[in-house]
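User: My instructor asked us to take a sequence, write out its structure as tokens, and then describe one feature of it. I'm not sure where to start. Here is the sequence I was given:
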Amino acid sequence: MDFPPYDDAPPMASPLAGVVAAFMPRLAEFAFDPGLLAAIDQHAAAVCDTLSLDAPGTPVPIPAQRTVGREELSDYVLGFNDVLTETGWQEPVGYDFATLRLTAICWLVREQNLLAF
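Assistant: Let's start with the prediction itself. The structure tokens for your sequence are:
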């Protein structure tokens, strides 16, 4: 599944820009479903934990506030996108693991202003 680039972002911002374009509208649903906010928070933490591994199974201390870099998150999105493409994933109406993960990535991009240049 390829994510189209976000119209207002420079070309080099993709694939994060594509995730933002596709999943930013889902962030509005937080107001109606507190459980969704908790699930997104857990997925964001999992992404940050994955990106903070120095060597397999060796966590690197991270500050209390979860932060990720644009390049590392972009690489993660590319790999995640490859898996979704290989499995033939189609975005559901509701939420599944992939949708929660992609929405969490969108949330991280927004909260850390990763599309700003």
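For the description part of your assignment, you could build on this observation: The longest helix spans residues 34-51. Try explaining in your own words what that tells you about the chain.
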